[in-house]
Amino acid sequence: xxxxxxxxxxxxxxxxxxxxxxxxxxxxxxxxxxxxxxxxxxxxxxxxxxxxxxxxxxxxxxxxxxxxxxxxxxxxxxxxxxxxxxxxxxxxxxxxxxxxxxxxxxxxxxxxxxxxxxxxxxxxxxxxxxxxxxxxxxxxxxxxxxxxxxxxxxxxxxxxxxxxxxxxxxxxxxxxxxxxxxxxxxxxxxxxxxxxxxxxxxxxxxxxxxxxxxxxxxxxxxxxxxxxxxxxxxxxxxxxxxxxxxxxxxxxxxxxxxxxxxxxxxxxxxxxxxxxx
Length: 277
What we know:
Strand content: under 5%
Order of helices and strands: HHHHHHHHHHHH
Shape: globular
Structural class: mainly alpha
Helix content: over 70%
CATH topology of the domain at 63-230: MetI-like fold
């Protein structure tokens, strides 16, 4: 019995170690590759003997990469803020108010997120051109809402349904309006869900590429995925992988920090509603 427990524990830790290595090693290798140049990129080293920190400086000198990062931050934060505000109010209506066609409407919201981006690309391009916001950050904000709003609405509706009805009834007895119930009663309870959905929406907006390369034209309006894709070498056949990896590391670090900062709320949000009673 004791031997079986030891074997089980050993296999468990081996599996955990394998998962950690499998998930962390690509990021580690990106860091190592960002410190190499030329033929050194094709040699296997767990840490380069002569690290080339110039790759990090080069991406800021050769293109407005700082501006590209700022564009991504502005767009992602704006998209997350608008998505959460709209999805919280929509989820309250879909989860707490009885009306005809509520379930079909919720399924319609979810079905929007099932369409591939390329299927709505031409329509979004016509809309962006008609609104006169082509090659602006507003075009990205508007288009990214298609990706984030259905997801956040669906998830927050699920969480909203799990909240006790007694809280809402007590607030109504005290004369609270729906907006007051949302902001004063439900919002404090929804913070784990808001942190989870907000972070996932931020990652989606931060990494989006197709809409970003379609609706922006100038270097000053591009976001980091497009900026990384357009990094070029001395010739059209040479790609400076060291600078590409350096740029990838820079844009990945903020996401890692956000996950570490909000990890407790993320875990609470992912496990909320799993146990009733």
